[in-house]
Amino acid sequence: MNKLAIPSQLDTIILAETFRLLGDPTRLRILFFCLDEPRSVGDIAASLDLSQSLVSHHLRLLRGARLVRGNRQAKQIFYELADRHVSDMLVDMAHHVCEDSDE
């Protein structure tokens, strides 16, 4: 495993804000729903039983943190996870919380 240098104070603040954003269950549900393929706001809202305005609000925050990106297709924007780092982190943490604890 590569040893990562200790992040700068600014990077630490940005990282803490990213984790704060990930601490919201609705945002996590949106991220997991977009894990396998790009999704429209309408698809996300309908599938997760949320209002479109709430989904749009959360996606704006997630885009600002560079956790998702949107791709316009005609009149719709389809959202997907920003990169492999985000998807790997989500999958790894989901596996972590689901592990049996033998301790």
From TrEMBL:
Coiled-coil spans in chain: none
InterPro entries to which the protein is assigned, alphabetical: ArsR-like_HTH (IPR011991), HTH_ArsR_DNA-bd_dom (IPR001845), Metal_resp_trans_reg (IPR051011), WH-like_DNA-bd_sf (IPR036388), WH_DNA-bd_sf (IPR036390)
Keywords, comma-separated and alphabetical: DNA-binding, Transcription, Transcription regulation
CDD domains: HTH_ARSR
GO molecular function: DNA binding; DNA-binding transcription factor activity
Span of domain HTH arsR-type: 7-101
Pfam families assigned: HTH_5
Domain of life of the source: Bacteria
Record's protein name: ArsR family transcriptional regulator
